[in-house]
Amino acid sequence: MNIPENLKYARTHEWVNVEGTQAVIGISDHAQEALGDITFVELPEVGQTLEVGKEFGVIESVKAASDLYAPLGGTVAEVNNSLDAEPEAINKSPYENGWIVKLKNITIDDASSLLDAASYRKLLESEE
To answer: How far is it, in rounded angstroms, from Cα 26 to Cα 95?
Structure first.
């Protein structure tokens, strides 16, 4: 399982790459594997304000549908529109081409509740 060291992780299996007051968000390799073949992603609107821990979209697969939860608060700056035509990009490349949303004006204090790669690995081990 791929858990990049440079990212932060939410207990709800989203990953975050914080870059100053901006962040890129997607779902972890573990989450995409658990979901199976992804068939649809409901994306938020650009300009929408996300609140930490609140639902911001839905991801559907051949196995299940799952809510996406905001690991950070902020304003949606960009969404990955290529997921409309190719939602399976999340399965193929969850950390590169499969990103879901980019936020601006994030509250950096929110990042303190996120897990580093080692802590995320421990979380996954405890869920087995």
So the answer is: 7
Amino acid at 67: D
Residue 99 lies in a domain: yes
Task: Tell me the longest C-alpha to C-alpha distance in the chain.
Answer: 38
> How many domains is the chain built from?
1
For 1-23, the pLDDT digits (tens) are: 899 999 999 999 999 999 888 99
Contact 62, 84 (CB under 8 A): no
What CATH number does the domain containing 16 carry? 2.40.50.100
The single-letter DSSP state of residue 32 is: H
pTM over 0.85: yes
Q: Is residue 128 part of a domain?
A: no
pLDDT in tens, 74-85: 999 999 999 999
Sheet holding 14-19, edge to edge: 8-9, 14-19, 22-27, 101-104, 74-79, 49-50
Containing structural domain, residue 59: 8-122
